[in-house]
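Anyone have tokens for DUF4145 domain-containing protein? Sequence:
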Amino acid sequence: MSELVANCPRCKSQQMTFDLVQALPTVAYHGWQQNWETFCICRNCFKSTIFVLQQKSYDDREYLRKKSLPEMDFSVNQVAIVKGHISLKDEIAEQPPEHLPEDINSIYVEGAACMAIGCHNAGATMFRLCIDLATNSMLPEENENGLNNRIRRSLGLRLEWLFEKNILPTALQELSTCIKEDGNDGAHAGNLSEEDAADILDFTYMLLERLYTEPRRLEMAKLRRQARREPGDSA
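Reply: yep, here.
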């Protein structure tokens, strides 16, 4: 049985040794950076915690394919970092769309956790940040077709410009009205209602799904189709 050193969320012991009993592989980023949910037992309070771990180094990928975390005869901290632990917020939080970039996925998860515990203003701010990161990368490097620095700085104006230029699908335009042009949708003022925050969540989910999930699914389907038609394939 392998060991993990982490802070215990049950007894609050710092840098305590845990027995890592079981590990469940979850998402992998960049095609190699594996994440796990690991069932661990604290050696101080003997209570269990499910830690979320993430692979440290690209160089460990072959070793980790051959050997699971519970089989290691050294500290798992050498190959993985502790990203957090599973708690009530994970049980009731909205799950993000698939195939998001790691930074946007992390921000979305944080926003969903805030929403799950009733922190609607904080959640909406995180979702706004997801939209900001996703749409900012869609702008051309040079100002053109009416694009200017004011539009670049304002999320609401940026969305309006992207819809006008048919860069974003028009089917999402009605949902986007929850993001005001001047940025005073309440996320910064701290006076959003639960319904307002839910509207921003809905738009964020649909936008990210269109930008990242659907293209990746199409790409994966195309690769499967090509593999079925490779020379020597019986299909």
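The longest helix spans residues 194-228.
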